[in-house]
Design goal:
312 residues; alpha+beta; four-stranded antiparallel β-sheet; 8 helices
């Protein structure tokens, strides 16, 4: 029933209106399909952009760790025995440097954590989700993981890399309780942070950012691009309507008007062929029809006159 009603409506519409409806349908279909595809592509691009920023930050934190481990610790080694300084711990240095970076607008939404299975400072203790990431690094040999994680405060996008014991200087504090500085034991106790081994993966460097940041970035780009595409489509609809009106609708109206005049006996009108397209061919066909009609009317008048003369 609805199909019949739509068909009846199309029959009663003019060519210009039909083309406009068709183009509007194409517009909405195109925007819908392209919008879905575009949202996927732009979200992937936004993820890559955020991921690249996170990787740069992670490399920076690794450099801070390396600097602390190779240059700061050796200089403070003798002093640390009597007085432990958290600033000498690579993880602590990296965390503090990152917090300074977060004071800048472009990095305020990023968070850094060295999620460790057996940390000295429980602030770095890996939760169940982070523990699974570390286990994947240890068992599957992964060098990088990324994805989304759901938290009570909202989803986050994270990127993680394995954290291994690469310097023997780390084992001074984390191998056994007896080897650790007494000042460190007084500060953190002996319950955790020991038993580490050289080249062992003991945790993961994780940088995260609210997923909303990724979604907003992709959404903003989608709105801009879809807006541009919509403007282009609307411009095309207007141009097509102008073309139809000039090249098809007006010539057809002129031909129709002339055909109506000819049908009422006004044979002085002429069907001008203004183009060589189908409209021009139609005008030429009407012109031939008009000539044929004139010849037929002349013969009819001639036969009528002859019959009158014979009758007289």
């Amino acid at each position: 029933m609805q199909t019949r009603g739509f068909t009846f409506m199309l029959i009663n519409l003019k060519i210009k209106q039909k083309f406009t409806i068709l183009l509007v349908i194409v517009l909405f279909a195109g925007i819908s399909v392209s919008g879905l595809a575009l949202s996927v592509v732009l979200r992937q691009n936004a993820e890559r952009e955020v991921e690249n920023t996170a990787l740069i930050l992670m490399e920076t934190m690794s450099s801070v760790r390396n600097y602390t481990s190779t240059q700061v610790n050796p200089e403070l080694q003798d002093k640390l025995i009597a007085n432990f300084l958290p600033q000498s711990v690579p993880a602590y240095s990296a965390r503090e440097v990152f917090e300074n970076l977060r004071s800048k607008e472009e990095y305020k939404d990023f968070f850094y954590k060295e999620a460790t299975l057996n940390p000295t400072n429980l602030r770095d203790k890996a939760d169940s989700f982070e523990t699974k990431i570390v286990e994947r690094f240890k068992t599957q040999g992964k060098t990088e993981l990324s994805g989304f994680r759901s938290l009570p405060g909202g989803d986050i996008f994270y990127i993680a890399r394995p954290l291994a014991v690469t310097e023997e200087s780390c084992l001074v504090c984390h191998s056994t309780v007896n080897a650790a500085p007494s000042s460190m034991i007084q500060r953190y106790g002996t319950a955790h942070g020991f038993g580490w081994k050289l080249n062992e993966i003991i945790g993961a460097q994780i940088i995260s950012v609210p997923a909303e940041r990724v979604i907003k970035k992709a959404h903003k780009s989608s709105v801009v691009i879809i807006g541009i595409v919509s403007i282009v489509f609307v411009a095309v609809i207007v141009l097509v309507n102008m073309f139809l009106n000039r090249q098809i609708v007006r010539p057809l109206k002129r031909i129709t008007r002339m055909a109506e005049e000819v049908s009422t006996g006004h044979m002085e009108v002429d069907f001008d062929q203004v183009s060589n397209d189908e409209i021009g061919h139609l005008a030429r066909a009407f012109k031939r029809m008009k000539l044929s009609l004139e010849m037929a009317m002349k013969r009819l008048k001639s036969n009528s006159s002859t019959n009158r003369n014979v009758a007289e």
